[in-house]
Design goal:
3-stranded parallel beta sheet, 10 strands, alpha/beta
């Protein structure tokens, strides 16, 4: 797994930068991850915080950022977007995560198993309801952040957190919202925390709001509703 991450992230990033240099392409927007912070300090995490990645994926994203910062010298423009947890779907074009591994993501996992007893992991430190907290953000708001980043490219390397910021949403926040939105009752148990899980991961999005015009246009209800509509679209498409 680590070798695959290295090939897809580090080698691919270095190859891309080499080709860009060769052809004098000097503009880059890089999708990084809030996971690079790990458990470095008390959230919300600011862009200047040091890295403390807790997984191979997070480590590769951190290493990718370092490569880009070394590449980004005079007359080069690089913007690094540290994405939090993109969720939801575009229901106009019906675009969303339709990969076979989508059930590994919280929202598709719950929606595709409403008739089962769901299992969630507890946070390793106390949170408001005992489950992990993340700053989930709708995919359309993430897409708009990339457009704004391109329109605001400037010399040097600049880093922004792209997420909903404080206070974030817990696993049980999603459970309650799904129950309200779909008028269902979800059966679940909270089991022991997993080693390496980050209990609270929230980025400070102040800089992105000020410099990129980051907007949060979708609330938790709209996130859940869009994912449900997309999931139903996939289900009907597969059955036809």
């Amino acid at each position: 797994e680590t070798e695959e991450y290295y090939k897809n992230n580090i080698i691919a990033t270095q190859n891309l930068l080499d080709i860009m240099t060769k052809h004098k392409v000097n503009k880059l927007i890089f999708a990084s991850s809030i996971s690079v912070y790990g458990v470095c300090s008390v959230p919300p995490y600011k862009e200047e915080y040091e890295f403390n990645p807790q997984s191979p994926y997070a480590q590769m994203k951190a290493d990718g950022e370092k490569i880009i910062k070394e590449w980004c010298g005079q007359n080069k423009m690089a913007t690094i977007l540290r994405l939090s947890n993109p969720v939801g779907a575009n229901t106009t074009l019906m675009l969303g995560d339709n990969s076979k591994n989508s059930n590994l993501q919280l929202l598709p996992y719950i929606l595709s198993n409403l008739d089962k007893d769901l299992k969630f992991n507890a946070a390793s430190i106390p949170t408001k309801d005992g489950t992990t907290i993340r700053d989930y953000i709708h995919v359309e708001d993430v897409a708009n952040a990339f457009v704004n980043a391109y329109n605001n490219l400037k010399n040097g390397c600049h880093v922004y957190n792209i997420g909903s910021g404080e206070p974030g949403y817990s696993v049980l926040d999603f459970v309650k919202q799904i129950e309200q939105t779909l008028n269902v009752k979800i059966r679940y148990v909270v089991q022991d925390s997993r080693e390496g899980d980050v209990p609270i991961s929230i980025g400070d999005n102040t800089k992105a709001k000020q410099e990129l015009g980051l907007e949060l246009t979708k609330n938790l209800y709209e996130i859940v509703k869009s994912q449900h509509e997309f999931s139903e679209f996939l289900r009907i498409s597969e059955n036809n």
